[in-house]
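Working notes for the structural subgroup meeting. M.R. asked for a predicted model of this chain before we commit to crystallization trials. I am recording the input and output together here so anyone reviewing the notebook later can reproduce the run.

Input as submitted:
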Amino acid sequence: MTQEPIFLQPVCKEKLWGGTLLRERFGYDIPSETTGECWAISAHPHGMSTVKSGPYQGKTLMELWDQHRELFGGTEGDRFPLLTKILDVKQHLSVKVHPDDYDAEDHGLGETGKSECWYIIDCKENAEIIYGHTARSKAELVTMINSGDWEGLLRRVKIKPGDFYYVPSGTIHAICAGALVLETQQNSEAAYRIYDYGRTDQNGQARELHIRDAVNAATVPHVDGFLDESTETRKGVTIKTFVQGEYFSVYQWDISGTAEMTQDAPFMLCSVTEGSGSIICEGKSAKLEKGAHFILPDQMPDFTINGDCTIIVSHI
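Returned structure, recorded in token form:
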């Protein structure tokens, strides 16, 4: 059977801090007016993508991974390695740090560690992220947390559409209000919450903090995630490389016209963030619309993309 793109049905999730942009921008069916996350390409038990059409229609991504490993180049491991989300951050996210693989295993979290990265699809003017901190030692970090000196501790960075940030495990971080973000991450929900602006949930309970674990997991002093950005332009496409990291590599394909493309990884995860077009492989054509998510499986023949669109692409 000739391999072809595998289109996925995402899962949207209600969050305290979410809004309605996932419906307004991408036409997703959202569960409420506070919808924060679209789990777009996910084999995580907390939110499972299913195949929209074709020979695997109705199967979950986890079933594909378990039953059709040939689609993923025989990649080893009992869990699908990556997770793609789109976040509608209407209110500030809590400040967190993610453990690395060793820390997650030590804590028996039943998850891998979590390194992630953010592509800013859109944001309000003067929107910010929290990216790192000012403490020079663990002792200073504890002192500043205990004294509530969040202004002095947390490092704020202004963002704009098209920006990209690599957030390795150990980075103290948060996305602040007014951002629409595509997140590529290890397939894990492992997180330690440090600060939540004193918010309470719908039952009036303060959300749990994990200060000791967070301090142990945090990289001190802060180190920016290394980006090795480069751009290549050829007929019909500009390919921007954002990061080629230990857990994932992420690219932006800007298609303008007709581009001839090659799938040269064990598999690729693709999300259309702007525009529209079509993908053609061995005479078969599929529409690409804003908000579409698909996997290019292993051994897929060379293909053509027509149109004007931006696609964020990742692979292991």
